[in-house]
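quick one: phosphoenolpyruvate bound model?
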Amino acid sequence: MKHLPTELASARQDIESVDKQLIQLLKQRLDVVKSVAQYKKGQPGAELYDPDRESQVANLWQAEATELGLSAYHAGRILREVLNYSRRTQEPEINGLEEKTACTVGYQGVAASYSDLAITKLFENRSSQRVESIGLPRFSEVFDALESGRVDYALVPVDNTLVGSIGEVNQLLATRDVAVVDEEIWEVEHCLAVVPGATTADLRVIRSHPVALQQCLRLLSDLKPVEAEQYFDTAGAAESVSYAADPRIGCLCSPEAAVRSGLEVLRTNVADHERNHTRFLLLARAPEDASPKLPVKTTIQFTVNDHCGSLASSLAAFSRHDVNLTRLESRPQPEAPWKYLFLADLEGHQEAEPVRAALAELIEQSQNVRVLGSYPSRAVERNQVPSPLTTSIATVPSRVETPPASPVENAATPAFEISGVPIGGNQFTLILGPCAVESAAQMKDAAEMVKAHGAHLMRGGAFKPRSSPHSFQGLGFEGLSLLAQAGADFELPIVTEVLQPEDVEAIAEKADVLQVGARNMQNFSLLKRLGKTRRPILLKRGMSATLKELLQAAEYILDGGNQRVILCERGIRTFETSTRSTLDVSAIPVLKSKTHLPVLVDPSHAAGVRDLVVPLALAAAAAGADGLMVECHPRPEEALCDKDQALRNQELDQLLQGLRPILHSQGRSL
Ligand code: PEP
Ligand code: MN
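yep, here:
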């Protein structure tokens, strides 16, 4: 190891010793958790999964984290993993401790592919089985191996949150004689890997599984002129790149597969969306008993008569008995063209009420109902941790299910995430930064100030919509680069304004959030274009716009397919002249009652003068805003834009001091 300065070496020793304690505490926690399972095993009716208890624990974590000045959000994410691990540790206790038995599991791909990694995760606790995984080139061969007895189990991917259902696997599932005995969820993290020493400039070909290529389109277009080349498996692509030893060829694979093939990781997390989960099913030749003490799912298959309303009446059996369907998939039947077969996953055990009753009804109405199995549910369900720490984005109502004029059903759920920062729900989001990007030195000092005050994102205008054509118009793309650089240096996602549709693509390349200014709220061609971008939009209320018009403007973006819209109240024109605009505090509760979209407040442009910004900001927080966007400047006297309203360090301190008790009293975290 390199020689390190003493302070660094000693700090690292401290970290290692804290880590050791963390692991020991985790072990202690799991031991206690096991004894809880032992207790519950002897209690008839005691369920292993107790959502109320989990939310109690989550609240405790949140309070403790907030008290210590930690991010409740990140602490919550850690808790989720701990709870997940705990539940799995309890399972063998509930199912009875057996000697570790050996078994073989078939999967499509080669070692370190996502299926292989998911097998390791699933069998870690599953009935204490020792597992040997066997990779095969094709899905059909995996099913063959299972049916012929060559392997005891098969793990196959059925669904992905980005690309949807894996058609080939679902077709095999519907037509082969197999039982579903378990499921696993894998959080996919693709990286870009190359032979050691190669750089992105060398790349000409990127090789991967077609699904992985489809999930990383942004990277592929960034790296033009590289060509995407399909390969049967992500880990197989890594092996082939290593074998070719050619710096022009890279691949998309898991970090584990890159390491295994001796490749160098150039970029991590390169998928187009932050959340990329694949759901796998574990198949066997015969069904297995799932403990009724665990949350259980059941997979069924059925066909319906080809007449009007028959599918609807089959499905009505589930709603009549209050059984939740988590997936419905239709598959063609090659032997009967234009007749479809349905695969459905539902919550609950096939032999327990109300699923039993719903299935009995379905059998009366539908043809060929087959139950593929009941098995432990591993998915993090919508309200599984119904606390302020919930991080699921799966609850964002899509435009189709719930128009923006509907309030969110669970206010504790963040509306969505921006580069890892949750917006909405119980998280209060702080955006700080100068009105305009002026120079590299100004941005460096501003970013330092923004970071020091704990902001989640940094703002900065590169394209300024000025009322007068003679005022400073911004540095344009040069300013955007300076902002992006400062954001990267200080690990702050960036927000910047876009003025015209032609610039959307280029600005979206560098900015994490695109802002629509008050003067552009009804620039409909801009809004339509923003509906097509993958970046979240911060939509400011026009100075003379009603709230209805603001929501209609948001609908332009939502209708284009972009669901990540943040509304921003920034003051409106009234007859009052002592402030630059009048902050419409009532807009906050009104918008929140009408829409699931997060509502931020910009007190700076409403106030126009520094001294009014903090009181207005606190009023906004008290009225329930999901966050604030506030202008600040390292040297306001030199600011080229909005110098009178820019906060200095001392006002930012006051702002934080004022916010803490307000948010605390609302059970929200900063
Ligand atoms: C800004 O936020 O930089 C800005 C120009 O604000 P508004 O569009 O609200 O005037
Ligand atoms: Mn400004």
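The longest strand covers residues 367-376.
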